[in-house]
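Lecture 7 notes. Example A: sequence first, then its structure tokens.
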Amino acid sequence: MKRILSIAVITLLTMSLSANETEDPFAEAEEKVYRTSQGTQLYAWLTHSDGHRQAPLVVLLHMREKDHESYGPFLTAMRNHVESDTTQTLVMPYTLSFDMRGHGKSTRYGRAWLAAEDMRKPHWMDVPAELAEMTDTIIADSSYNIDPERIYLVGASIGAQAAMLMTGHMKQTARVAMLSPTRNYFGLEIPETLYSYDGRMLIIIDKRDHRRFQQCTEMFQEHGRDNLELMTYSERLRGTDLIDGQPRAMADLIEWLFKD
């Protein structure tokens, strides 16, 4: 009888753990829709802070041919980081996870439809501006308690390019984390903006992603200022796949976002 009870308890615990691991981090997110001045119908998902204190806003930009859900593991890890804080001083940020133009639900472009595989250089060139346009409307909404001096951008691969270039449209951006960026991707060229930006920046890159690693190393050396950090790993992974597949990379990113 005791053995049967023990098996039952273990089974229940396993089911509970599995439920936590598979829980949708966007389940309580607020779906936002915005028609940009460029004609894109943009979708993004806003998760809320506790609302009692001003909180940062972390904007999340996915890789090419992915969507906002690729940041699910990051959201779970960040919430676990806040909840495990024994000092109880950390505040869970708001997060705004985009489906960029041509991806996920953001496929309405003017009077036509645009799929990710059909996007060419001209389609990408306006992306940073329209992402900044929608983000600014969220920051300005007084129903949220977003700290306008703590706007953090996180982008993966082409999302990293867009994040860096968004700073040209959003001067209040305090931090930019770039996962596997390159000098130029579909016309989104970042070195000039990276060299002139005064906020804090982080590049996360895989050493085995040889071409991008070389370019990231060159940009880091050319920049030559202490507001840019370079963190390297060896997993043969890129973008959000790198932080999902390398726990140290995920932890480093989250610690950097919360670091004073």
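Example B, a different protein, same format:
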Amino acid sequence: MNTDALKLSLLTYVKHFGLYDYLAFGWLLFTFLALIILASLIAKKSSVASLFVIIIALMLLIVSPFFIKIKLGKTLRNTTTEISMVKKLTFSDSLIVEGSIYNHSNKDFSLCLVQTSIVKQSDTQGLKAFINTLKPIAIQSILVKQDLLKEGVMEFQSVFDDFVYSGDVNASLKAECY
């Protein structure tokens, strides 16, 4: 994933924080500060134990935001995606990906960030297939401002212009809706 797509995803996520996002990150900050205070209190008795608590607190502060985003995304903003068509146009250097986003959440969405990745198609399994997913041929992020109701479906289309790769490709979709 390129840095612009990562930045867009992160900024969109932070801009659309809800109550549970604030509560989760507030609890994380409270826990971190409590562990630091605990480490300073036990530093008088054992510096090794204090250092261990500080390391745990720092690991918690670094790793927990990723788990919070994943867990809240699955719980509060649950969506699935499906690709219906991937077509390379014959007379132009364009690739079209059509797909659908399904809302499995209990709330309506008004905005979706859809990320489409194009990777080389390979018949192999395992490490080579995994490496192909890490280095996609093309990535496109689209911010769709359209209402997606509860249990609703939204159709969308991504067009990759100047797509000159001549081999077979696979597409993958990821949607974050708010």
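Note on Example B: The chain has four helices and six strands. The two ends are 21 Å apart (CA to CA).
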